[in-house]
Amino acid sequence: MSVRELVVLGTASQVPTRHRNHNGYLLRWDGEGLLFDPGEGTQRQMLRAGVAAHDLNRICVTHFHGDHSLGLAGVIQRINLDRVPHEITAHYPRSGRYFFERLRYATAYRETVDIKEVPVAEDGTLAVTDAYRLEARRLSHPVESYGYRLVEPDGRRMLPERLAAHGVKGPDVGRIQRDGAIGSVLLEDVSEVRRGQRFAFVMDTRLCDGVHALAQDCDLLVIESTFLDEDEDLAVEHGHLTAGQAARVARDAGVRHLVLTHFSQRYTEPDEFERQARAAGFEGELSVAHDLLRVPVPKRR
User: pTM for this structure?
Assistant: First the structure.
């Protein structure tokens, strides 16, 4: 059975708190698992969430601040300890290769798994599979940072009334899907485009073109909202977003489900993030993330 969901492993910015672990997010996409920004403690959070090293296929790091990457050492060593039988691909800003290598080989261990490194150097497509296209866009932060966007290929939805009108039934339905036509009846005559689903992951950044490009038309957007709106000056100074800014991005991009995360330890009332996001005009589904939250990707329209 295919599963598409976000598993939130940690939601704190800069330092963990009693209730929030450093960052960590797993996207289950059918049979694959994409781990984003494994901060310190991610390996333990994976255990608590029921996520195994075997579930991982890609590791995507937005930038090399500790709360987004210090967990790499433990996760990579666990991948090797458990002898994950498939290749794992790691994406990260190319300017941070030195940090990735130091974390990958932070201590002695036996390498048993092939981890393929595909650094990000510019905006564009990182990988294309049958299930999705993975893209990256540059963000605005004091160190080089990229956000990630996953796009499912468009498919087609069969329309029963059109099939009946053209006399296509039984095994012929499968044939027209496979071959594109049966006699003079084309696939386009009995179906319509089914837009592929879209997911984006936007961490530490000010407002910039990359934020809007990543968020556009997303079914599920995970985005940082480190500060509340009254601290917007601090957000701009340190390269972050506020709850209202993130919500307006989602509103203007047509996002269906917005997940706010990466909260400063200065705030103790998560409900205020939701209030400010709603005040900014976002009317879709909204989650203020907490550790171990699970968020399903919205069903297709």
Answer: 0.93
